[in-house]
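[SOLVED] Predicted holo structure with flavin-adenine dinucleotide

Edit: marking solved, answer below. Original request kept for reference. I posted the sequence and ligand SMILES and asked for the 3D complex as structure tokens.
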Amino acid sequence: MSPNATATADTTLNPTARLSADAVVVGGGAAGLAAAIALGRSRRNVVLIDAGEPRNAPSAGAHNVLGHEGISPLELLARGRAEAEGYGVRIIPGRATGASGALDAFTIEVDGGALHVDARRVILATGLVDDLPDVPGVREAWGHSVLHCPFCHGWEMRDKRIAVLGRNENAVHQVMLFRQLSERVTLFLHDAPEPTDEQWEQLAALGVGVVTPRVERVVVAGSQVTAVEIEGGRPFVVDAVVVAPRFIASTSLYEALGGERTITPFGEQVTAEGRGATAIPGVYVAGNAGDPMAMIAGAAASGVMAGAAAHGDLAAADLAALVHARTRPFSAAMEAANSAAVLGDRIHGV
Ligand SMILES: Cc1cc2nc3c(=O)[nH]c(=O)nc-3n(C[C@H](O)[C@H](O)[C@H](O)COP(=O)(O)OP(=O)(O)OC[C@H]3O[C@@H](n4cnc5c(N)ncnc54)[C@H](O)[C@@H]3O)c2cc1C
């Protein structure tokens, strides 16, 4: 049994519960769990806080996950949690609601203060929220037959009737990727800009029809799309709808620690260097919070790198402290001798 069980129970019994750790990981998706495992395997004391809402939860299966092709997203994370707990990681179900402090002395507030976690390093692996187009039916079928990623669900939609619901200048790019999977792709311009002359040529070359009136709603039966209805109510029968979410990373904790979110044409994120180090010393980012394009394998890879980087940083700090402790008696003696000499000089000079 992981120490987590005790820690979780403590938070409900004791509103001022406090835990301390070498590293606190916020977010228990692929990125956060991978970071926690890298740290745990290096015998670091790790607390992971997770609100339990991974981005791909609606999907039936996760694809392009080497060795686990088609696994249920929740099953994948359950395995990751068991692996992390096997290395002593304490997993706290809950939401990090505040962050404060600085290098070596961060504090993460959980569930509005029910728990505080003090830690020397912070890894933010909070993922992102997909801001979907505000069209009726889109949300109901999201992750099932309303899709965004050809690599995640494209194969499953091969040869089907696919509607691309345009939102921005990326629409033709989406058409190109999905056209590789099916010959029956239609572009509904909706919010996308009018294609350029070159794009009209490309669409014609791909044999893709373009519908210009705005889309009024996506017709669904349960989570299955059946049609796209345009202004005036004309329906187009389709099997799947491709949308372009805005990728809004959860940056509030980073901002609470003094960081600045990065706004991109496609959403918001935390910017970091290759191994996840942010502009704030001791704060790392991993997964979709720092890279909205990262799929599961990429998110896990960035988690491992951030965990390894945080551990390396801690190891260097620990070593510096050890060296300091070893040489301190000598330094103290030198300081004492020096002050005696100064004192002696003074006495001599009097
Ligand atoms: C519908 C859909 C299907 C997808 N299918 C695939 C696929 O087949 N293959 C693939 O490779 N990729 C797929 N993806 C992409 C995949 O979801 C991401 O690559 C992956 O989830 C990124 O992992 P992450 O750990 O960064 O974020 P997430 O998996 O989203 O995990 C973030 C975690 O942090 C938690 N959290 C957030 N804020 C807080 C907070 N303040 N306190 C505590 N916890 C917090 C969340 O609740 C969540 O549990 C899909 C995405 C979508 C939207």
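OP edit: The pocket of flavin-adenine dinucleotide is lined by residues 26-32, 49-56, 58-59, 62-65, 95-96, 125-127, 130, 143, 149, 152, 250, 287-288, 294-297, 299 (CB under 6 Å). Thanks to everyone who chimed in.
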